[in-house]
ABC transporter, ATP-binding protein (Salisediminibacterium beveridgei), 226 residues
Amino acid sequence: EVLVKMNRLGKVYPNGTVAVRNVNMDIPEGEFICFVGPSGCGKSTVFKMITGLEEATEGEIEIFGKSPANARKENEVAFVFQDHTLLPWRKVKDNVALPLELKGVSKEKRYEEVDRVLELVGLAHTKDMLQRELSGGMKMRVSIARALVTRPKLLLMDEPFGALDEITRQSLQQELLKIWQQDPKMTVLFITHNVFEAVYLSSKLAVMTPGPGKVSSILDIDAGYP
Ligand code: ADP
Ligand code: ADP
């Protein structure tokens, strides 16, 4: 099933910058797609259009046949950025519970789901901790848990591990793959500058060429998952 459809999608920012143009891509369900391409080629802009943070100025985009704004409202899309934006005065469990709180989910159900995702990222023991007690890797895990708590079908990650040291990055890569492999319907879109990371993680690789008028292509990577 096609999850995201982009047809001649483009974005010109209000200041006149042509960030992307003519992106044609059908993203099938269940893939782990890494987006690579030189800095400034428009990767983040494409992600912002998928999440509805920026509106497309050209072409069409659909997520499960809906507009990005509607898909986001229904918690079908979640995203994780490099700067994890946890609320410092809230405990880990209350940061992770936030998206459910906004949806009006009952407290009991919220903490059931929080326990589930904290377990998934190996942080069950940090429930009552504050951000200042966490290492960089742990903060990123909390962000991932918070993104997963609404059971989104599509997870977007923009350079999530860019600020982490090599060892921490490798363990997070492995954990993320495990989480993705546990759910055959889950689709992950991942931006990285690190080609080794892209090759290690992706089931498909999306290559964006520099400059406006670019067309992105999806290549299959047989990463040989165990
Ligand atoms: P990438 O993620 O591949 O580095 P971006 O999507 O961040 O690329 O940026 C694509 C182009 O759009 C760049 O030229 C960048 O300077 C420009 N750009 C990004 N955000 C804005 C904005 N809010 N206003 C104007 N130009 C922007
Ligand atoms: P990670 O791989 O998650 O980044 P680290 O190797 O940085 O983990 O940290 C290992 C352990 O040290 C963590 O599980 C945590 O219990 C503890 N730790 C790291 N940083 C802090 C901190 N700032 N305050 C308290 N404990 C910490």
